[in-house]
Each structure stands twice: as structure tokens, then as C-alpha cells.
Amino acid sequence: MRLQFVMSEIRVGLRRNLTMTFAVVVSVALSLTLLGGAILLRDQVSAMKGYWYDKVNVSIFLCNKSDAESDPNCAKGAVTKDQKEQIKADLGDMAIVDEVVHESQDEAYDHYKEQFGDSPLAATLTPDQMQESYRIKLTDPEKYEVIATAFDGREGVQSVQDQKGILDNLFTMLGMLSTAALALMAVMLVVAMLLIVNTVRVSAFSRRRETGIMRLVGASGFYIQAPFIMEAAVAGLIGGALACVFLVLGRFFTIDNGMALSERLTLINFVGWDALLTKLPLILAISFLMPALAAFFALRKYLKV
């Protein structure tokens, strides 16, 4: 009987404040969609870091004859055979070096033609203008500075470049997007909380006579609060369910089908469905508990008769 009464009160309350309930549902849905998207974006950044940092190379570019005329680092002339052998030997003695691949001028020229063959500059280049290089795979990509310190400025070395720096810029931008989404989500959650508190207070005020009578006849505080708390929790849960639907549809139509980013951007290892599905219970739990707690604290003064 008590459960039936609570359920009937929930239905009455939701219908009575339909407009505000709709606002609560929409604000909760949008804020939790942003929360889920921000969490998934952080997972995506972590997955991309693990994937790409493992493939990062440090490149030691060697001086050629053209560099000797124009680059201060190559003022002593093009790299010699002895210098190349010494660089390779020193790399082999370093514990952080996992693999060393030598790229000759002809190979560098062929690679350039493959990538930029349509460029007007490609027609003017010759193999002797390209730079030899050592492409180094490290056991720990974070220790690039060890290579840079050991070889930057050495005779025969034009420059030491780390591909990780390029990736860091990308990951920094993605991290900023994730932070911006979390900040916007926080604003939306505050709006949702305020809407929940106002909705509960309006509902409690409109039924103050009934709650006063219930209090006078000995009804417990929890029994009086329960319908209002459940109204807010149900509205929030509907919003959380909508957020889950938005996240699922968003991934389906942007990554798998529709835009099909997984097929167009094959170099990006997108997070799988398992990463998304494991976040949905968290979204639903927050959507239920947050409005319930907000309603509980908002109702305390309305229990006084």
C-alpha cells in the first residue's frame, strides 16, 4: 500500500510539473552526454598515445654538401664515413636504443618523391641534395633528450628531431578539448541541479497541506520525502537514459557508420564499443543519485510543521 502510494505521488508530481520536469530531463541528458564524451575522449587520447608513442622515431640528420654551404651546424663540411660509423657505433652502445635504421640519400629521395611527387619543388631536387639519416626507435620514447644531448652539435650532424614533439601538440589539443567538454559539463550539471532543486521546492510547496497533515498524523520524514526524491530521481534517470542513447548513436553514426571515421581515418586506433558500454552504468548511476541527493537536501526545511 505504501509503495503504491509513493508511485502514485510520483506520477502526480511529474504530471503537475511537466514543464520543469522536461527541463530537468534535457539538462541532465546534455550534461551527462558531455561527461561521457569527455571521458571517452580522454580514453581515446590515452589509446592514441600508447599506439603512436610506440612507433615514434628519433631522427639524426647528417650533413650533406649543400648543408656545408648554408647551415652553421655543418660548417666543417659533409659527414664523413668515419663520422657515420662512429655515430652508429655510439648508438649501438646506448641501452635506450631499440633499433637503428640507416636511410641513404637515394632512399630519402625516393621517399620524398612518393610523398610529395606532385610538388613543384620535387622536380628541382636531386638525390645529392637529400640528407642521410639514422632513424632510431627508443625503448622509452620519453627519453628523447638523451639522444639529443649526445648527438646534437656533433660534427657531421645537421640536426636531431623527435617525432614525439609533433604528436604532443596533437595530444595537447585533444586534451584541451576534453577539458573544455568537462568544464561545459560542470556548468550544465549546476544548471540541472538548480532546476532539480526548484522543481522539488515547487512541488513541495504545492503539496504543503498534504505533507503537513502527514506529519501531524505521525508519518516519518523519509515517508514524506520519498515521493519528491523519487520524482527527481526518475526525471534524472530518464535524462541519463537519453544520454546513453546519445552516446551510443553518436559513436555509431560518427565512427562505425554515417561518417565512418574508422574507415576514413585508418591511422587512428579508435576506442571500441567495450570502452563505451562500460561507461553507461556510471552515467545511469550519476543520473539517479545526483537528483535524489539534490532533492533530499532541498526538502529538509519542508518537513517542519
From TrEMBL:
Keywords: Cell cycle, Cell division, Cell membrane, Membrane, Transmembrane, Transmembrane helix. Its main location: membrane. The chain crosses the membrane at residues 21-41, 177-200, 221-249, 280-299. Residues 56-160 form the FtsX extracellular domain. Part of the ABC transporter FtsEX involved in cellular division. Residues 183-301 form the ABC3 transporter permease C-terminal domain. This is Cell division protein FtsX. It is found in: Cell membrane. Forms a membrane-associated complex with FtsE. It is a multi-pass membrane protein. Pfam families: FtsX, FtsX_ECD. Belongs to the ABC-4 integral membrane protein family. FtsX subfamily. PANTHER family: CELL DIVISION PROTEIN FTSX. It comes from the Bacteria. NCBIfam families: FtsX_actino (NF038346).
